[in-house]
């Protein structure tokens, strides 16, 4: 869940090795519970055609070759393009791939169709989302499992690639999450990662990625591309929220969706928030 108040992010991110008291642990437990309830609510309200929950990616230069999608995929072109940008030139054919924070499953399903991994596994802590994904996207080599990003339910060295898109800012400990990523990756495996948040959070996140035991191969600020995508989808998302969401929750959903006029859209537009992607390798 995205928070506009910047002080929330240090609380999520900065508690890695610090000792915290009983009240601090209680606040963390409440925060994690509230995040879980929020995503259960989103999953409950969502229609079956909602399979992506990321902000999307819109290239500024449209002269190059466009991502080829089937007609049924065109309605999700912008969020699909974000996944395509995060994967980049990484070859996933014949690999075992894990997506942590798979949400409504659209990203995992896209990777499964277009990148031809040997197996594709999505893990999410929202039980409603996992049940939806199993019903909507089920395939013999595409599976979904409930689990916590900070305690992944897989043996060591289980995957050739781990994908994490626009999810890490929800975790209580980035360090524990990264330790899990390193643990489940095989030697030579790749971590394909993107996240959004206040500039201090992103800068601290970059430092932690640099010392997690993986080598940073690529990094890119894609904030302007994400803002462009949000501008394209803003009117449609605003109309959907107006039609489907109770009045008392509309402002929260507008901020969650990053529509024009929301605090999140404003923060991204001014550079107060950043959206970045990384490719890391286990060597």
What does this structure look like?
By secondary structure, the protein is an alpha/beta fold. Helices cover about 45% and strands about 20% of the residues. It has helices spanning about 10-15, 20-45, 75-85, 105-115, 125-135, 175-185, 200-210, 225-245, 250-255, 265-270; strands spanning about 95-100, 120-125, 140-145, 160-165, 185-200, 215-220, 275-280. The protein is globular and about 45 Å long. The two termini are about 30 Å apart. The model is unreliable at about 1-15 (pLDDT under 50).
* Overall outline: globular
Proportion of β residues? 15-25%
- Mean pLDDT over all positions: 86
* Individual helix count: 10
What's the β-strand tally? 7
Order of helices and strands: HHHEHEHEEHEHEHHHE
- Helix/strand-derived category reads alpha/beta
Largest sheet, if any? 7 strands, mixed
Give the strand line-up of the largest sheet. 3-2-1-4-5-7-6
Unreliably modeled segments: 1-17
Distance between the termini: 32 Å
Helical proportion, percent range: 40-55%
What does the radius of gyration come to?
A: 18 Å
Quaternary status: single chain
Compact description:
The chain is an alpha/beta fold.
Give the SSE map.
Blueprint: H1 8-13, H2 22-45, H3 77-87, E1 96-100, H4 106-115, E2 119-124, H5 127-137, E3 142-146, E4 159-165, H6 174-184, E5 185-198, H7 199-210, E6 215-221, H8 223-244, H9 250-257, H10 263-270, E7 273-281
Parallel strand pairs: 1-2, 1-4, 2-3, 4-5
Antiparallel strand pairs: 5-7, 6-7
Helix pairs in contact: 2-5, 3-4, 8-9
